[in-house]
Amino acid sequence: MSLTKRGSIAALAAFSLAATMALAACSGATGSGPASGAASGDSTAGGSSAAADPAMAEQTITFIPKQLNNPYTDVVLGGGKKGAEEIGFAQANVVGPLEASASSQVSFINAETQAGTNVIVLAANDPDAVCPALEEARKGGAKIVTFDSDTNPKCRDLFISQVVAKDVAKVQVQMISEQIGGEGDIAILSATANATNQNEWIKYMEEELASNPEYSKIKIVAKVYGDDDDTKSFQEAQGLMQANPNLKGIISPTTVGIAATARYLSTSEYKGKVALTGLGLPNEMRSFVKDGTVKEFALWDPAQLGYLASYAGKALAAGRIEGKVGDTFAAGELGERTVEDGGIVIVGEPVRFNKDNIDKYDF
Amino acid sequence: MSSPTKPTRTRSSRHTTSGGKDAGTSSAGPLGGDLLGRLLRSRDTHMSVVLVAVILLASWMVPRFLQARTMTFLLMDVVAILLMALPMTLVMVAADIDLSVASTAGLSSAALGVMVEGGVPFWAAIGVCLVIGVACGAFNGVMTAYVGLPALAVTIGTLALYRGLALVVIGDRAVANFPEWATGFVTSTIGGTGIPWISIPLALIVLLFWLLLHRTPWGRQVFALGHSLEAARFVGIDTRRTRALALVLSGLMASVAGIFWTLRYSSARSDNAEGLELTVIAAIVFGGVSVFGGKGSIWGSVCGVFTVGVINYALRLDRVPDVVLVTITGLLLIFSVVAPSLVDAWKQWRHRAKVAARAAAPTPRTGAASA
Questions:
Q1: Which of the listed residues A50, A91, B84, B108 has the most CB atoms within 10 Å of its CB?
Q2: Which of helix, strand or coil describes residue A344?
Q3: A340: which DSSP letter?
């Protein structure tokens, strides 16, 4: 009796495992779909000079983002796949963990090492945890490009960085100056008081305002912190209006802050009178741009980040560059790019979004 | 409601006499004449077969699985889970549970990072981490066995508490400057075989736990109190000490896993090993450890951990999205918990139908349909 009972369990277990393996094999096959991109590379390349490169037909590229199912990441990867298709990689895959923990990416890198992937494009969750795995991958001949978030520089060939902090600050100052007519009181609504990115940008903004004679009549009268919390940012915006009756404009260098401030302004008497600019996501800001609350704001185009990473990977894999300072390579519709100090390649200046171009972006 | 449960009870009591031994405890049984039969029947044997089958399937269906590298990467992925699974087997056989293992590992990882950064000698730092692990386990043990709170409640609490402490210790930083010989040793392999060096101490630890659970009086006590706490107390077992000791061992091994994790990834962070407790429990339940206590074996758990490890690794090698992977692991877990009950229920139904059919012949009043 007992023998048959246990036997049937084992049989069932074996059957279920066989089924799951079969399932795996199926989805594995469908997952490598972008391979067809090699054939259609010429047509998708459009006006750009980069046609499918025959040297790349044997090469594979894999993107490993911080985590899957993140809207921002999806846009970045969309750009990466577009680039990979133009270049004509034999295979372009995306794998990655569901949670952005330090070590979760290691087994994905290991699997790619075993697969003999030629280019691994990674947004590291931890600068050091992935290093041993990347070393192993490089020993196997893979080129490592990091984007969005760098690893320890000794573990990768190139890092693709969104923008230079100074440019982010400059474009915001320029936009607010245009919108308030070059003079008046302005305020800054930031994220948290110790946010590294924001503080760096604010520092450069202050420098720019102080050093550029064009902005001599613009004065920062307040700096408040919405902690990247929607409600708190909303209340801080409200408070700014009450405390500074002469306020002409607000710069919010954070996507949460600018969206909350725009929401407040759009329903208040200040709509259209107090200018608002900063860094925002087009999808969140679209309605405020259309109803006139916000004239123009900026952000880098995440898709270009992935796109450039693909081209950097191509240049490395083809042996055209080694990732040394001064190396230059063609990056499709982005034109030529140069490797800067520390093996960093900059995507470019932030994109400015207004009612004329906002519908072209979906992120 | 009461009439269907009656036959259940008679069935299950028959089970303990005829087939109860097959629940992974066969290795501890006396050398009887039916040793071979019992071996074939044991859950351990079945788990071994499942593991081998999974490995064969993976080698057959997943390209590149048959490489020396697989052994390296797979073993490295499995080590931390296995280190926690061994004591977790003891804890769960004793009808307790320890959900705080991954947090304990995170806490020792954070502590190791801060100490190494602060210039504490490496081995001293390791020692302190082990003490932290023992302390974490002892707290769980005292609250569970002596204060008398359910292990589930206590360790859900300490799951959050120890993770919180890790954050207090290291904050949102990451420490990475560990001695290279230590990180190098953890990831090095034996010659060109692809077998990590770390698997030698690991095998020793597995052997120790096997001896502890299946070859010592203490191990028998764990099984006894897992079956019935009352009965175990009446035969003179110090149930409190035994349960507490299992939880202390769990804490200690969790900190060992934390140290391994830190050196393997050369990164000490407060979120290290987060969520690993569920993987550990899933793997050993799949390996035959009963969630109600009293059943389980070290070999079954080892097979469970490796089976889950091989499935995960093979699917990942095939670039199957993690969403599918998590779903499969979940289904496997549910299946391994539910399957025995389903088979039992089916047996009972058949048995009752047979009895009813037999009874139906002399006295037509009790129809088979009512069963």
A1: B108
A2: strand
A3: B
Q: Which residue, chain included where needed, has tokens 């390791």?
A: B126
From chain B, pick out residues whose CB is under 8 angstroms from the CB of A77.
none
pTM beyond 0.90, yes or no = no
Task: Report how far residue A279's alpha carbon sits from residue B229's, in angstroms, rounded to the nearest whole number.
Answer: 62
According to DSSP, residue A99 is labeled S
The least confident of A111-115, A316-320, B307-311, B357-361 is B357-361
Phi first, then psi: give them for residue A301, nearest 5 degrees.
Answer: -90, 110
Using an 8 Å Cβ cutoff, are B246 and B94 in contact?
yes
With CB atoms and an 8 Å threshold, state whether B266 touches A9.
Answer: no
Closest CA in chain B for residue A29: B318
Q: Which residues of B touch A32 (CB under 8 A)?
A: 319
- In chain A, residues 127-156 whose CB comes closer than 8 Å to chain B: 127-129, 131-132, 152
> Hey, which residues 51-90 in chain B have their CB within 8 Å of chain A?
53-54, 57-58, 61-62, 64, 67, 69-70, 73, 77
- A 150-209 residues with CB < 8 A to B: 152
**Residue A98: DSSP 8-state:** S
Which residues is A122 bridged to in the sheet?
A64, A146
